[in-house]
Hints:
With 416 residues, this protein is of the alpha/beta class. Helices cover 32% and strands 26% of the residues.
Amino acid sequence: xxxxxxxxxxxxxxxxxxxxxxxxxxxxxxxxxxxxxxxxxxxxxxxxxxxxxxxxxxxxxxxxxxxxxxxxxxxxxxxxxxxxxxxxxxxxxxxxxxxxxxxxxxxxxxxxxxxxxxxxxxxxxxxxxxxxxxxxxxxxxxxxxxxxxxxxxxxxxxxxxxxxxxxxxxxxxxxxxxxxxxxxxxxxxxxxxxxxxxxxxxxxxxxxxxxxxxxxxxxxxxxxxxxxxxxxxxxxxxxxxxxxxxxxxxxxxxxxxxxxxxxxxxxxxxxxxxxxxxxxxxxxxxxxxxxxxxxxxxxxxxxxxxxxxxxxxxxxxxxxxxxxxxxxxxxxxxxxxxxxxxxxxxxxxxxxxxxxxxxxxxxxxxxxxxxxxxxxxxxxxxxxxxxxxxxxxxxxxxxxxxxxxxxxxxxxxxxx
Length: 416
Ligand code: EPU
């Protein structure tokens, strides 16, 4: 199992290229199931999760050609309408094949995802929405069996805002008979990126970027070309790293307007941020100030940045309060941060961080993707050596993080 060895205390300076967004690429790849034509994709990040979804889609018969990083999906020969447990258990986003398969082929068999490290994460809203569109669904032996000759448009109000739930129902609605209204829809930029691809494929969608998506079904979708949106979470992670170590780094191929809530908090912490159309520069000197925050759906502060900003708060001046409202168990990094000398107490959804003047390196263990990123940030800021174990979690969602960080002056290496 790979580990990362970090010798902390180095200031970061230079440029980092941001990759395409994992959480946009995953639904977008699944949208390849919606048409027999070719979808040409660029800016697809090279990540473990992206490799996993490609493996699943190939098993189903979707052909995926990789031409120097640009992907061409051909959906002519999709025949296996099934996502087996072995795949879904390794990546919950596999549930995103359910909507497209059902809409185009009238049936699907998809394993129910289990719980995961950050919470129970049920998919009841995906199922409820598809049922409202006329699908017959039964759950048996851990599998969702779904059938519908042709889905019918419906008004669907989800009980909570769900990102992949919105994406699944949106894809299903594009090929349904009639009009579907998705109320309480997720407004995350990754949902809009998927919607923009679907429109390029011939879908009729109004209200993109809002919490009410109106979809008029069409008989079929056609091919299209699309560049995946920049990864706002990778962007935010590097911004936090620089704010924690001090330095001057420009992130390229990214967009400040995708992470206003994160940028505001980093400014409150003392970082100087400037941006242009496709870059963000962060400059930091001195000790950060503590910033309290609460995670909410977009455009609020993202749960996927909670652990990383908490790592910054660990070494900040003063005390901060962090409230996680999206997932019930997303504080697995707290104990590991405390092993590095942080002072964090948690009580249910709230964590109180008492900033300390320095962290001291230690061996720590990654528990999930964003928790791993917070340990890397803490390790970069800590005195001495930090060894981060189980970084396969990190590789699921960050493309060669250690290479990008080394290039701006971090002392970090992968140990195989
Ligand atoms: N929920 C339900 N029932 C449902 C769907 C969701 O109870 O049918 C609950 C969840 O348990 C959770 C809340 O609703 O408490 C929101 O979950 P959501 O469905 O929005 O999460 P998701 O779609 O499974 C995506 C991202 C996550 C990100 C969340 C929240 C992808 C592939 N994953 O998950 O990304 O944290 O939205 O923004 O888009 C990550 O990249 O590290 C990651 C975990």
